[in-house]
Amino acid sequence: MGKGGGCVFSKGQRLPLPPHRRDRTFIPAPATTASEPTPATTAPEPTPATAAPAPRQVRIYVVFYSMYGQVRRLARAVQRGVGSVPGALGILLRVPETLPRAVLARMGALEAAAEMDAEGIPVADPGGLPDADGFLFGFPARYGAMAAQMQAFFDSTAPLCRGQRLAGKPAGFFVSTGTQCGGQETTAWTAITQLAHHGMLFVPIGYTFREGMFEMEELRGGSPYGAGVFAGDGSRPPSELELALAEHHGRYMATLVKRMVHGADA
Question: Computed over its alpha carbons, how large is the radius of gyration of the chain?
Fold first, then answer.
């Protein structure tokens, strides 16, 4: 082919672009420059852990009836036992007297009634019972069962029973009898019927008082059903051993109620 003709291009003649590049505009790549160093990212300050709120205090109502003062003294010891458990509060409440003062005078019980009034222990209101997390009921025996005053109080809780307002709440008993054969056990276990109708849970102490439950050298009230005292004719006060058992009863109940309310680790 002649110079400048045919399919051989002459020297200096520009080669045509191939078809797939003819409509494209050449854009030069930007010049590369040293990039500025990226500043280090500061890690956010860790959020301090929020302390879990302290569990609320459990409330155990110590509800009792006492004619001559023995059950009242046990109730005080029970309250001390409850209060010895961190996060537990024992609240004393007394059951109203149903006997006229003239009858109390003939029974020699006016002095104890005056002491009760002087201590300022509030009277139990059945309507307030659902506020408690647990109960310890104390009462003297009458023919192997609870005294009529305590029975009258339980009778007044019928509206709570109809609504099952106390269902599932734990409760125990501590008692007073005149003699060793006066019903330390029967007075407690005949009272379990009251709890059953309310759907409550009866909590005995068993032999958790350890060697104190096997004491044979000293007269002692109480049983696996709960703390107790031998009152005789009403003149015998609780012994140190009986008071220690009552205090143990309160501590044992408070520990159990805390576990029920706040879990096994409470």
Answer: 41
Q: How many CB atoms lie within 10 A of CB 201?
A: 16
Contact 246, 81 (CB under 8 A): yes
Q: How many helices (H) and strands (E) does the chain have?
A: 8, 7
Residue type for 47, please?
T
> Can you list the alpha helix ranges (DSSP code H) found in the chain?
70-83, 101-106, 110-119, 148-155, 158-163, 186-189, 192-198, 240-262
pLDDT at 55: 86
Q: Quick one: tokens of 185?
A: 């056990």
Instruction: For residue 146, give the 3-state DSSP assignment.
Output: strand
* pLDDT for residue 35: 53
Contact 90, 257 (CB under 8 A): no
Confidence (pTM): 0.80
Q: Is 177 helix (H, G, I), strand (E, B) or coil?
A: strand
pLDDT digits (tens, 9 = 90+) for 109-156: 999 999 988 999 999 999 999 999 999 999 999 999 999 999 999 999
What are the tokens at 250?
């309160």
